[in-house]
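[stage:ingest] chain + small molecule (S-adenosylmethionine)
[stage:ingest] validated
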Amino acid sequence: MSGFSEQWLALREGADAAARAAALVPAIRPRDGRTAVVVDLGAGTGANLRWLAPRLACPSRWIAVDHDAALLARITARPFPEGTAVEPLALDLAQALDRVPFAQADLVTASALLDLVSEAWLERLAAACAAARVPVLFALTYDGRVAWTPRERGDETVRELVNRHQRGDKGFGPALGPAAAGRAAALFAARGYEVSSAASDWTLGPEEAALQSALVAGWLEAALEVAPAERAALADWAARRRAWIASGASRLAVGHVDLGGLPERRNAEDAEGRRENRSTSLRGDGSARALPAGAPCGAPAARLAVQRLTRPTRKPELCGAPRPLRPPR
Ligand SMILES: C[S@@+](CC[C@H](N)C(=O)[O-])C[C@H]1O[C@@H](n2cnc3c(N)ncnc32)[C@H](O)[C@@H]1O
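[stage:predict] done
[stage:export] tokens:
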């Protein structure tokens, strides 16, 4: 079992969908000219597919990879976007990355996965993607920033303890945790990728009280594992945060990063494709219409809004944060 419950994934799906950076969805060029093959790593119950498939503007066949077969079974148990086919692949990615069919893929993607993995595993992933010359899109990587409103004593202590906990082994070796998005940008850039990033922060208000409460519970547990001697202070912090949530006045911003990457050869082809297709592949409002076989599908014009990276830049501040937060070391 992965430790990620179906209930938790359902609870976060709305906040994830609201936070994601649509501008990073790449223009993908199906190898067969018709249907894009998308490999989704750590697919869980399919939230990434439900968000991304309708934005690809061409039919897609998803290879949904996860080591938790029970979560994968939930993908096909509910409706999924029209023009989408799903093949579950139950696999421990930590042990068997080489069994992922990268060579078939038109896009490799993951959501809420990279902060769980180690640097060594991420290097292997970057090497496998680069060898297949496949575009990548990694969404919702937690980056260590947290801002509660109103503030309470203990918020910063808990954030630091949680971020230490994030660096523990989550099955892939010592996890990168909050450093993951920056390391991924650097490792893919080193393999010749043109990397773009955008903030995908959760901004949770009173309507997301259930998600806020689940985070308090999860963060309390994580903080206690790191600092068991602080039990009384941590329990007191949780009680005060729960009281704010119950009052309807609690707001919470949680920092995430979305990362997109185009492989070296695709950069040149895609720039060419953008020049050729901009006038024919998009409507005036930027939405896609039917494309000729072999044309890239996605939202090339929208990508102009995002930040291009060859190296990780400073993290953006959280929207609505009462003052700038310094990212943890
Ligand atoms: C935070 S969840 C994200 C799930 C889904 N991508 C989403 O956005 O809802 C992380 C997912 O990675 C999967 N996972 C964790 N370790 C894994 C491993 N070693 N091999 C394959 N999948 C793994 C978990 O089962 C879980 O579904």
